[in-house]
Write a structure and sequence with these properties.
This protein is mainly alpha-helical and 109 residues long. It has three helices and no strands.
Length: 109
């Protein structure tokens, strides 16, 4: 017997005439997957009025493991001028990152 051919029609009509339930026309559908979780909102822009607590530049000039260096982050620079760098912050990129990350700690921002 072929699927969906005259044999299927005859069998369905015989079941219908006898009062029996008809077979489903298609196999049962599998359940839908659960919905995806909502996307996280974008990170807010950095606050220009606070220091970045995650900022640090560990180098041979600033050993981040030495407690006297205060993690080589913004606390290391608190009360100092930062625009000219120094103490291991020598490249233009390092100085720009320092100024961006530590506007409160640096006295010349």
């Amino acid at each position: 017997p072929g699927f969906g051919g005259p044999e299927m029609l005859a069998a369905s009509l015989a079941l219908l005439a006898s009062g029996g339930p008809l077979p489903p026309p298609f196999p049962p559908a599998s359940p839908a997957p659960p919905p995806s979780p909502p996307a996280l909102p974008p990170a807010p822009p950095s606050d220009p009025c606070s220091d970045d607590p995650a900022y640090a530049l560990c180098s041979s000039d600033c050993n981040c493991d030495d407690p006297r260096n205060k993690g080589c982050g913004c606390d290391y620079w608190r009360g100092y001028e930062c625009k000219d760098g120094g103490f291991g912050w020598n490249s233009e990129r390092e100085k720009a990152d320092l100024l961006r990350a530590c506007p409160v700690a640096c006295t010349d921002v």
